[in-house]
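**User:** My hope is that you can spare some time for a protein that puzzles me. I have put the entry right below:
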Amino acid sequence: MVKKLRSRERGRHYEWPLLAGLALVSFSTPLMAQETTKRVTHILGFGDAANNANGELSIREGSLRFQKKDAAQSAQVDLNSIQDVVLGQQDRQMGGTAMAVSRAATPYGGGRVIALFSHKKYDTVTLEYRDPNGGFHGAIFQMDKGQGEALKTELVAKGAHLKLTNTETKNETK
């Protein structure tokens, strides 16, 4: 019986530091500002931000904020005022005029092969939101491929609304 007590006491020496560590992690996590930042190009429509401006799109404290690279301009909207988030994909040819001339000058149809490798794909995210006065607005952002779906998921998880499309409403009524 004495051996059983001592084995239990040994285990308790390890429990307290473990419990204290877990309590510290669980209490400190909500207090830390959880912010998500993505590098995007603002195409048009988000507040006073300039069109075709590169910057960072961040989600924090219940709002979506676009900050231009040089920190000169910023615009933000409350996540609850976002009415819909629509995803799209875009394909852009890289290399500019020099690439186009080299494609045209390549003999035997080789320019088509060059064209296969000179394109880059992007995700576009279109937001529909209401301003504090109730006005309806839209904004378009462009980001690297694969980031659009993650942004949409996070926006919805933190309070943005989505409209149901015709296919989604048909599936719900069946």
Notes: The CA atoms of residues 24 and 118 lie 51 Å apart. Residues 24-33 have pLDDT under 50 and may be disordered. Strands lie at 36-44, 53-60, 63-68, 74-78, 82-93, 119-130, 136-144. The chain is about 40% helix and 35% strand.
